[in-house]
Amino acid sequence: xxxxxxxxxxxxxxxxxxxxxxxxxxxxxxxxxxxxxxxxxxxxxxxxxxxxxxxxxxxxxxxxxxxxxxxxxxxxxxxxxxxxxxxxxxxxxxxxxxxxxxxxxxxxxxxxxxxxxxxxxxxxxxxxxxxxxxxxxxxxxxxxxxxxxxxxxxxxxxxxxxxxxxxxxxxxxxxxxxxxxxxxxxxxxxxxxxxxxxxxxxxxxxxxxxxxxxxxxxxxxxxxxxxxxxxxxxxxxxxxxxxxxxxxxxxxxxxxxxxxxxxxxxxxxxxxxxxxxxxxxxxxxxxxxxxxxxxxxxxxxxxxxxxxxxxxxxxxxxxxxxxxxxxxxxxxxxxxxxxxxxxxxxxxxxxxxxxxxxxxxxxxxxxxxxxxxxxxxxxxxxxxxxxxxxxxxxxxxxxxxxxxxxxxxxxxxxxxxxxxxxxxxxxxxxxxxxxxxxxxxxxxxxxxxxxxxxxxxxxxxxxxxxxxxxxxxxxxxxxxxxxxxxxxxxxxxxxxxxxxxxxxxxxxxxxxxxxxxxxxxxxxxxxxxxxxxxxxxxxxxxxxxxxxxxxxxxxxxxxxxxxxxxxxxxxxxxxxxxxxxxxxxxxxxxxxxxxxxxxxxxxxxxxxxxxxxxxxxxxxxxxxxxxxxxxxxxxxxxxxxxxxxxxxxxxxxxxxxxxxxxxxxxxxxxxxxxxxxxxxxxxxxxxxxxxxxxxxxxxxxxxxxxxxxxxxxxxxxxxxxxxxxxxxxxxxxxxxxxxxxxxxxxxxxxxxxxxxxxxxxxxxxxxxxxxxxxxxxxxxxxxxxxxxxxxxxxxxxxxxxxxxxxxxxxxxxxxxxxxxxxxxxxxxxxxxxxxxxxxxxxxxxxxxxxxxxxxxxxxxxxxxxxxxxxxxxxxxxxxxxxxxxxxxxxxxxxxxxxxxxxxxxxxxxxxxxxxxxxxxxxxxxxxxxxxxxxxxxxxxxxxxxxxxxxxxxxxxxxxxxxxxxxxxxxxxxxxxxxxxxxxxxxxxxxxxxxxxxxxxxxxxxxxxxxxxxxxxxxxxxxxxxxxxxxxxxxxxxxxxxxxxxxxxxxxxxxxxxxxxxxxxxxxxxxxxxxxxxxxxxxxxxxxxxxxxxxxxxxxxxxxxxxxxxxxxxxxxxxxxxxxxxxxxxxxxxxxxxxxxxxxxxxxxxxxxxxxxxxxxxxxxxxxxxxxxxxxxxxxxxxxxxxxxxxxxxxxxxxxxxxxxxx
Length: 1206
Description:
It is a single chain. By secondary structure, the protein is mainly β. The protein has eleven domains: 26-387, Glycoside hydrolase/deacetylase (TIM Barrel); 395-453, no CATH class; 462-522, no CATH class; 528-594, no CATH class; 600-665, Immunoglobulin-like (Sandwich); 671-736, Sandwich (Immunoglobulin-like), CATH 2.60.40; 742-812, Sandwich (Immunoglobulin-like), CATH 2.60.40; 824-892, Immunoglobulin-like (Sandwich), CATH 2.60.40; and more. A hairpin with a 2-residue loop joins strand 17 (324-330) and strand 18 (333-339). Helix 4 (161-175) packs parallel to helix 10 and helix 10 packs antiparallel against helix 11 (430-440).
């Protein structure tokens, strides 16, 4: 067996030497010494454990490509967390010394960018957060102990391998500064696309291992065999690819089976997903295997697994290989020291030591290190776990210098980009700027926009007023450092003096620049006021002038610097002054006043013309009259009304003016009508004015009198005004004769007939109707055609204008009763029937004078184009009179039918056609009403009949055209899904459309979200015409089936085992070739040992997988066979307790007791017997009576015997 394993390791796990100038072996072990105290002088050995914590085997599980489920599922499941609303506790092992849980750990590999482009695939604000890990998640994984490895830039191109590895290395460090000092420094490469050409370059760059991602791995590696590890620092490794149903649980079992405390195995496996069976495991399969491993080998079981990253295992093996243990016994104490030169660039520095002595340990003291744990106090054996920090971190400045110098030397675009990452790791400052300038000076260097130059300007210096606040804003960046200490993009300042503010802005390219801005502060004390005099007489004026600004506002409203103040008392005047900078100041001045003299003056008075009056003023010391006198009293005799002004001055030289008006009253001015004439029997009003009392020659005393003289008469009036003056005037009224009137006698006529009326005796005439003042004629005769009995009045005038009035009555003879019918309305183009009544003869006419068919009949049919009046003349009574009547035919125009404008819509769309122009509507598709809701798939004409309130109608047509659309389709949707299948990326043709349906998110179909059932998925695309094309496909999601074969079991070699699962699956495929839902396992055919039986069942295209381990034992082996190899079991039969006696012939024996159902009821690893005979007592008293199988096994043999409990 050992030779076979060695051969496999030689073929598939090649370990080679490479000289690594980058790995600096320049430090000692980080533990100074260890002192172990015993209860007496010891005989003790100290050995290095093959694996950390003295675990039996190590298992490393790598997830390539840094997919998002590394964090959302694998990490949270192992570390403990919530996944899809389910909380998982985590999976753990211990350090072997305490019960403190240590989570299972894995690793992943990142490719920071897509090929050599600058698209950051792990940007937490980018477009790939649902696909790849983000930088914060990568940092959290690293800090939780997970391995983070370099996978290049997803390119297998060997032309730029140095760049593909180096740039990913530098960018990973740059983006993970928060994870650890100077960022994550990967020392393991995952060969992109399995390209082994990357390996040698990686080793030259200081990498410890290069992994191929395809199936070049081995089940396990014996890390305690020195021949398998020739140089742990340049390890070329292949790994087992786990996909579909490839069992990592089986691999763990195999590792455990070939491991022990002194024989340690390590295996590395990988896949790309724990949620997609196409790239690895489904989450259910992942959980199944991890649960299996944790249950069997984790903290709460044997606790003999070390499940961690490849990096931690390699680091441990490196330390283990280089450290030498030195021991010295000092009485009852053992002093342990270490020698060896260790590399300075490892992530983990750890070593586990095993203590074996012949006396008990009483104390352990470790000098140096951190996180030390140990056990063994009170025992003769123990374990010490050592940890220390031995990593020497190269400073950021040294790294920047190294890579900038390299870029300057090579002037390679790729070296420039790598160096840029190291420069960006530096803290902002002059050192960073110097390196940046060196890179930017390299000829042909292509660096991101804004990296070499990010200078900016805060703008010109500005001026503010004292007490004001100003906002200063820097350009957009990622961080800010103001001279005030602020770190925001904008600051608000309110300085009290001239102040300069500066800011340093950092952009997302690592570039930073500074600028400053001075804020000049203007004082608010600049307004002044001066006045020509600060004391004036009341209501006198003074000039007040403000200065110091460009805008002014007085408290009295003026806005000019000059203000004329005329106070009526002592007053203060305030001005608001605004200068050119908008600053404001105020100033105030007070103007005091002296009172003016109070003048006493003669009241206004009235005199008659030629009279004399005295005017007197008092209240002052000096007087000045407008007439020129300077005494306080003067006499005046004006001819007209005059106002006299006097100016009075007091002892303060303040003056006041007053006035007195002398009104001069004259004789009344009489206004009287001129001589006039009236007709005899007329009266006239005579009116005088200009006085306050009147006296007429008739004796009347009113201003107006009415006189009716029969002969020519003169009238006189005396007028007295209010001043007592009188005047006299007269007017003559001439009396004129009337004309003599002769008029026609009263008469009668036929209705609708006319008659001439005559009058004589005058030289002008005015005819009117009784009760109507409208003049209907001015000749001596008029023709009248009354429609009813009418009295006509005629008024005649002679040359003097005198008139007389008489009347004549015109009545109607009895006539026939003519009726033309009621007015009617027709639509244009229609016909109206008119029927006349009331006589024997009829004659029709109309407005348009056209000949009417049947014009002399009682009934006519007319079709006028416009509204028309029709007249009928009806005759036939004894008076010979005719009668007429009128009927009106109103012609209604057709309504203006409007079906709407022609339109274009998308096929299958609906539109509301709206007609107008009427009150009722009827469409050719049967719709009634103005609105017609139609859904159209081809070009269609719609006509509508429009009716108005009178029943008139008209028709219009509207055309609905179908816009052209292009056919669309989409791909990527399978006809059938299982509920646990991965999502499908859908692609529409043409692109740019929208997917809709259950389980759709953007253009991805998620079967699990859609749920079980048949689902319709649509793809819609709006074309240039605005039309939405839509195609629909259906898919079926079936429940992912589950099957169970039960627990692993054991059968005898001569027995059979029937395995079955429920019927109803579409197909069954057993690993033994059976295609039925049941299969029979023959112990004889399988042979003694373990056999894994696998079943794949399909239902609706979905696959269920299950496996069971069947252990076949030789139940016929008896006590005699055991005795031959030195194993004795007694008593047998037993009541429950029995003994096992064995010797040193076999080592590392495993004891298992199995019931007939194949269940292991008791299991124990028997300690090696180091003497001639050893005895182990076992008590099964609590178990049922019956037959049991006792199995002894190690790597060399398996033997069984029957045990009977009675």
